[in-house]
Amino acid sequence: MLFFLLLRCRKNRKWRPPQAAIIPNYHLPMRSFEVKNRTSAEDIKALRLITAIKTPYLPDGRFDLEAYDDLVNMQIVNGAEGMIVGGTTGEGQLMSWDEHIMLIGHTVNCFGASVKVIGNTGSNSTREAIHATEQGFAVGMHAALHINPYYGKTSLEGLISHFDSVLSMGPTIIYNVPSRTGQDIPPRVIHTMAQSPNLAGVKECVGNDRVEHYTGNGIVVWSGNDDQCHDARWNHGATGVISVTSNLVPGMMRELMFGGKNPSLNTKLFPLIEWLFQEPNPIPLNTALAQLGVVRPVFRLPYVPLPQEKRAEFVNLVNQIGRENFVGEKDVQVLDDDDFILVDRY
């Protein structure tokens, strides 16, 4: 009888969710107001030439920090104002997060007083993006680069929630490259994110019509396409470029971004840019830097060097443009296939 009375009482009660399922939001940002070289979104917005820096390797696949330091120094001496560390070009997709944060911290420690360090701490996992961004700012990076969640993708509301989760931590550049992520970040998302004072701007790879849409609405844009960056800068209002080509010819890319309209220089560079993107970046860039003797000819798989006939084309391009315009001091070489080391475990 008692059992039926209890059962009747339970039926008359309003159901409530179990308290264990309600998790209070106790998360606090892991931030310090004593971060070395602290900067603001406004400082990032002023940058015109940002190099997406290559990560060189030792024969066993670990980072070659001596070669990396030399390459960064060449960028600074030739006028680059910012570095994307561990981006697509720097092969962040092949790094552990430990490697990633170490390289960001190393770059800040060695070069943070001379150049703005923008760490690629984006991920298709919001949890990972938050964790990496906290760590990146903790080791002193000036800004974060964030891509939209790739492969699994998400809804537009999911994109907004993802970016909103990381924007509060510090100056941020949002990176739109649908050819790699499989999903465009539409203007609606960017306009929503632009309400945050931490949005420094957008690295836009869709094209110059999209660039002009944003710049016309007061949003800072860097061209993500080297072949379009001259027109983006001088005809469509872009602040500058986040460049792959500047790894090789930083002085010429600086002139392209700082020197006013220069269609003749743009035309001169176009064959090199076209060569650099004949295969997915960073395959040609890695090959070219090895041919210039600036980095060891070491590739982390799945990247492999360009074939010999393409390497011969690069030698011709260097001779046409002028060896003095390229980084490094060694003579450019074709290199033999056996000179390259392909690393699958590192």
TrEMBL record:
One of its GO terms (biological process) is lysine biosynthetic process via diaminopimelate. One of its GO terms (molecular function) is 4-hydroxy-tetrahydrodipicolinate synthase activity. InterPro entries: Aldolase_TIM, DapA, DapA-like, Schiff_base-form_aldolases_AS, Schiff_base-form_aldolases_CS. Its EC number is 4.3.3.7. Pyruvate binds at residues 89, 242. Pfam families: DHDPS. Pathway: Amino-acid biosynthesis; L-lysine biosynthesis via DAP pathway; (S)-tetrahydrodipicolinate from L-aspartate: step 3/4. The active site is at 175 (proton donor/acceptor), 203 (schiff-base intermediate with substrate). NCBIfam families: dapA. Catalyzes the condensation of (S)-aspartate-beta-semialdehyde [(S)-ASA] and pyruvate to 4-hydroxy-tetrahydrodipicolinate (HTPA). Belongs to the DapA family. This is 4-hydroxy-tetrahydrodipicolinate synthase.
